[in-house]
Write a structure and sequence with these properties.
269 residues; MetI-like fold
Length: 269
């Protein structure tokens, strides 16, 4: 039993090292003095890279841009996705399964294949190089995830609740808003976290649709830190840590909700 316990502990340590090791090394690199990156170990640790990123560059504005885009994407997906998921889960009409499968098929398109047509559409409607114009394509590809997660949550809610609300005189929308939506709060929280992380980390669309430096998002800004003659690895690492920490905290705080959202409906009672 002791050997089995020791083997389990070693396996856990190896697992955590494999997944958390790169992040800890990134943190160490962010504290590494700029002129000592070629050395195997720093002579001392410094926060100069963080000071340079936060006060020497407009990185806080970049973070605010990412927060705005991610928040807009999340709000749009929850508003549209919750109503659509309720309809798919509780209302009787033909083609419900087909609609859900079609939504999933949309998310299977590789982003590189949709960049050109989306660019032309955004330019035609005057939304290119705008944060709102960036949030709309994000919402398009985040809606399938929203539908699948929330549909599973609404299906778990007893149909008797919806029928009772209808008997009491509620319209379908009133039953959704007053009865079922509050009960689906865990699913809404889970979906909001997943969509927010997706929008926060997206790079290709942000690089293509935004051209003004003041409107860049975090992934694009970090990728452009390097210049022709200098690659500030310390600053890149510091910016990566600053950009990653909010997502890490968010994921740790709501990890149970994320797991319950992804497994909702997996076991049929």
């Amino acid at each position: 039993m002791k050997q089995r316990g020791l083997g389990t502990a070693l396996a856990v340590v190896a697992f955590l090292t494999f997944f958390l090791g790169p992040f800890f090394w990134q943190v160490l690199t962010s504290l590494w003095p700029d002129g000592e990156l070629t050395r195997p170990w720093p002579s001392h640790l410094t926060v100069e890279n963080y000071a340079s990123v936060l006060w020497g560059r407009p990185f806080l504005r970049v973070v605010a841009n990412s927060l705005l885009v991610a928040a807009l994407t999340t709000a749009f997906c929850l508003t549209m996705g919750a109503a659509a998921a309720f309809a798919l889960a509780k209302l009787e009409f033909r083609g419900r399964g087909l609609l859900l499968s079609a939504a999933l098929a949309v998310s299977m398109f590789p982003p590189i294949a949709t960049v050109s047509p989306l660019y032309l559409i955004l330019r035609a409607v005057g939304l290119r190089d705008s944060l709102i114009g960036l949030a709309l394509p994000y919402a398009t590809f985040a809606l399938p995830l929203t539908l699948w997660v929330l549909t599973s949550f609404f299906r778990q809610l007893p149909d008797e609740l919806y029928r009772a609300a209808r008997v009491d005189g509620c319209t379908p929308f009133q039953a959704f808003r007053r009865v079922l939506l509050p009960l689906a709060a865990p699913g809404l929280a889970t979906t909001a976290i997943l969509v927010f992380i997706f929008a926060w980390n997206e790079f290709l669309y942000a690089l293509t649709f935004l051209s003004t430096p003041e409107k860049r998002t975090v992934p694009v800004a970090i990728s452009l830190f390097a210049s022709e003659y200098r690659e500030p690895w310390g600053e890149i690492a510091a910016a990566s840590v600053v950009a990653t920490l909010p997502l890490v905290v968010l994921t740790v705080l709501f990890q149970r909700r994320i797991v319950s959202g992804l497994t909702a409906g997996a076991v049929k009672e």
